[in-house]
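OP here, attaching both records as promised.
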Amino acid sequence: MLLSKSFGISGSGLTAERLRLDIIAANLANANSTRTPEGGPYRRKVAVLEARQAPTFAGIFGGIEPCGVRVARIAEDQTEFPVRYEPGHPDADASGYVKMSNVNVVNEMVDLITATRAYEANATAMNAAKTMARKALELGKA
């Protein structure tokens, strides 16, 4: 594999994980939002990642080579909204119950840690490829 492909693969991972971090931040910011422009409480969003693949020279014969990751789409979590009894809340129904956002702060924090670790792993892989490229150039000097 060429070193330039390593940079591209790690770069795509960095981009995907950064978007995941942005989505997680938006979920956390809206964890208590009971009203949205679309109506109803905020619905948790999730990044759906998929492998990017590129045809190789052997692709003429059906070969495919992995070349990173990309965000396929941003999906909405379809779990039910929890309800809370708050009769004084402006969004309460006639019985005094309020539909809350389906964002679970604990799950978001776990996702935040995994996205951060994946981002760090991609940065480490990119730095390793950069070090290898630098060492290869030093071989030519000797």
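Record two, same layout:
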Amino acid sequence: MRATVLGFGCRLNASETEAMAAALARQGVLAAPIEHADVVVINGCTITHEADKDAAAAIRRVHRQNPAARIIVTGCYAASSSHQAADLPGVVAVIGNAEKPDIVEVVGRALSHRGAPDVTVGQLRRGVPLRVLPPVADARARALLKIQDGCDYRCSFCIVPAVRGPSRSIDAPEILERARALVAAGVAEIVLTGVHLGTWGRDLGYGQRALGGLVEQLLAVLGPSRLRLSSIDPHEVDPRLVDLLAGEPRGFESSGRLCRHLHLPVQSCDDGVLSNMRRGHRSAQFVELAHELAAKIPSVAISTDVIAGFPGEDAAAFDRTRDTLVSLPLAYMHVFPYSVRLGTTAATMQGAVPAAVIRARAAALRAVSADHAARFRAAQIGRVVDLVVHLRPDRRGVWWAKTDHDLALRVGDASQQAGRRVLARVAADGEHAEIFA
């Protein structure tokens, strides 16, 4: 059997796409280009209407390229639009996020399927054990270790709780076991990921802000590997986590086990907008945390997400957001122009911002991000950095590596260091690094 697995959307979706492909490979299913695949699995995103359109367009494109291929649709797009997906050409099965661990069985059934598409989108609820496929290393020599899924919050712009369910966690012993297996397999970087990472453990009785304790346990089993955290809300960064980041030894002989990078999605720095978004923090908390991290953790990379043009964001609110972000010690920002997502509270809010204004505000915020990124990169020039070299060069033959504070750097011929953690010095252009022998 030959199969292709295509993924769209967030880092979590990417990790699940890789895990499904690996699960199929372990059962002898051969990876193949779309034109030669018997089965194509499409792991779709639904965060915006554009994401829905992208998933549907991908399904149609696959069917045009290979009309004989049997298409399986999964992911958040399948959860939100299961019947629409089932009506698209070539689709034989639609499964939800809860059914992703069953992908081998689903693919096996697809070859003999006849009749109307099978639609299986299970209920995502607390109390049902969270099943997760084993993580695998990607081309960047990192493995995304999923420890949590779902979200208990109800941000007014977000559809995720409807398609991922309430927050559910993998228990600590299983996480530690999977981390040990990754370290034993030689994975240089482990990334803790989830839909709402900061709520890990609450459903298991670990209480609020349990993530710091889990990270402390993981540090003890890392060996030569390093640990990175994916996105965590600003109000969920507990003091233990800050202490662990600050306490890791840094220097030429010791690179530290915990990456000096925290991605803290603020979305806005205006409290009125944050209230309308139903976010769990306020601007002052984010500002205070950013300055605390910069003061306690040398060369820390702080990144954030921000939405431009949310309903009700007037010129003064935008100015407050922009000016606050300009003043903070950030490494970069992800900027998202607001777009209406039906099914969310924000879709019915008053005070819509004109599309041209949204585009202008997004451009202004991207300029702020570019300034931060340039300053952060320049500050690394001449420094010794902790790199993980990608497993293979890019299509142009260029080898890349990533620092512990999330900076991508070009390196020379790194075929001997592929997939390894190494020390290097950042060159004068801030774009290259020289690996120490």
